[in-house]
Amino acid sequence: MEFALNVEQSSAHEHHSDLIDLRNSASNEFIDRTPLILSSKAPIEYAVEIFGKLGLSYLVIVGNSARYFGVTIKKRLLGYLDRTAEK
Q1: pTM for the full model?
Q2: All domains of the chain in start order, with CATH
Q3: Residue 56's closest CA among 46, 65, 66, 64?
Q4: Strand order from edge to edge, sheet including 58-62
Q5: Which sign, positive or negative, has the C-alpha torsion 84, 76, 59, 49?
Q6: How far apart are CA 29 and CA 5, in angstroms?
Q7: Which pLDDT score is estimated for 72?
Q8: What is the pLDDT of residues 3-58, one digit of tens each?
Q9: CB pairs under 8 A, 24+ apart, for 1-6?
Q10: In this structure, are residues 60 and 37 in contact, taking their beta carbons and an 8 Å threshold?
């Protein structure tokens, strides 16, 4: 791949290492670490849609005035939906 970095190009500081420190590599500028948030008042279908379309593993849930409410994890949400569908 012409656009990919190999081990020698990725880190000028570590010429003898086989490991790439992603925190200091060129790929770091392409990684968005901002978590996606969802209102606690949003329908559960929104969370399912966000997980499905964006491939996320978690969503931060916020309440009134954008205060932290909690985190929902995709596996737990799917488990909850399975349990409610069985009832």
Answers
A1: 0.60
A2: 1-31 (no CATH), 34-87 (3.90.1280.20)
A3: 46
A4: 37-39, 58-62, 68-73
A5: negative
A6: 14
A7: 93
A8: 444 444 444 544 555 666 666 666 666 666 788 999 999 999 999 999 999 999 99
A9: none
A10: yes
